[in-house]
Structures are given as C-alpha cells and as structure tokens.
Amino acid sequence: MQNNDLLADRLTETLSDNTFFLEKAGSRRLVTRDLVHEEYRIWDPYRSKLAGLILKGSSVSIKSTYSVLYLGAANGTTASHVSDIVSEGTVFAVEFSTRTMQDLIKISVQRANLVPILADVRYPESYKNMMPKVDIIYQDVAQRDQAGIAIRNAELHLKKDGLLILMIKSRSINSVRKNYEVIDEEVNKLKRFFKVEELLDLEPFQSDHKAAVVTKKSQ
Ligand SMILES: C[S@@+](CC[C@H](N)C(=O)[O-])C[C@H]1O[C@@H](n2cnc3c(N)ncnc32)[C@H](O)[C@@H]1O
Predict the structure, then answer these.
(1) Contacts of 192 (CB under 8 A, 6+ apart)
(2) Which residues surround ligand 1 with Cβ inside 6 Å?
(3) pTM of the entire predicted model
C-alpha cells in the first residue's frame, strides 16, 4: 500500500501497537505498520481470524514489546502481521507441515523478530529449549483436542499474567455434533485452568469458529 505522511490523518489507533484503522473512500480497513517496508499493510479479516477478532471489538491489546507463541502459523499470513505488531518483541511461530514451513522461513528471512519452529504443537516440551515464556499464546490449529493443546502449551510457555487467544474450530473437533455443543465443551475444559475474558464469534468473517480470550486463574 502507498506510504506517505498524507496517510497519517486517515489513520486511527486501535488497542494494539502498530495497528490502525485506515479510513478510505467511506470504508474502514484494518492495517498494520509494515516492519520491513515503510508502508501500511491491509490486514484482511476474511483471511486472518485475529484481524476478525479485532474488528469484532475484542479488548485484546498487543504491545510492541510482547513475545508471542503462535501455534499453527501456516504460511505466515497472520504471523507476519503479528510480527509487524510486536516490532520490538518476538513471534515464535510453530508449524508442523514441512511444505508450509518453507513459506514461513522465506518470510522470517526478512523479519528478524519471527522465529519459525518446525514442531508438533501437541508436544509443547519439544520446543521448550528454543524460547522463553511468552506474553501471549495465539492458537489456530485444526486439531481434535484444541483446548487440551492450549492448556498444555500455556502450562509450559505462558507467563503467569499472560493471555491465551484460542480460535476454536468446532468442525475439526467433531463434524457431526452441533457447533455450539462442541465449542461449549472446549470452553468448559479451558475454564478449569483459565478465566474466560472474552468469547466472541467471528461472523461474518469466519464461520464455525469461536475465539476464546483467557487468562491464567492463579492471578
Ligand atoms: C487454519 S491453519 C492456520 C492459519 C494461520 N493461523 C493464519 O491465520 O495465517 C492451521 C495450521 O495449523 C497447522 N497444524 C495443525 N496441526 C498442527 C500441529 N499438531 N502442530 C503444528 N501445526 C499444526 C496446519 O498445518 C495449518 O498450517
């Protein structure tokens, strides 16, 4: 997207650093300030559930200094925007598909704060020695035991006062049962260890998903 100071008066801040709403021709787009080039990048909520969460009015605030553990980074579409946001921090991006990892590695070459990790998120101890505890865990994996994976990763990798953002995809867990039943069950599992701060659907950007934003109970 064009980069010039003329943009500045059309940008309004969001709750997260380096993330803005751009007012353009009567419409409002979410953008992040590109870490690599001097420009703003459109962040598409139809391609990124985290962008959808922000547009749905979440109170999540990601600071530029935060460290983030990203579980299910795929080819880095969302992870690259998180890398824009935590410009003074680090994104540890875990992905188990070797094909997808190749794209992620290409992106990380330009982004010093994006650390790709080839691993299976069901085994969080396998990357324990590669990273410190983080401020935020963001999880977007199509697996059956989504809450269990989140709980085990948080236990090992999340700071005491950290935040876990879990994108729950009901179809990956059970394609036969009703969406809300499957999601309720996952949320109930989370409630044993976490306080649920937000539970938002991502319509119209994503269907069959619910975003849970939770903090550790011991706080
Ligand atoms: C829905 S996609 C993630 C999209 C990505 N969050 C984005 O917005 O750009 C889910 C990803 O999780 C990965 N994944 C699924 N199970 C995994 C596992 N057990 N360990 C690591 N990655 C996994 C898949 O390979 C896939 O790339």
Answers:
(1) none
(2) 48, 72, 74, 77-78, 94-97, 100, 120-122, 140-143
(3) 0.94
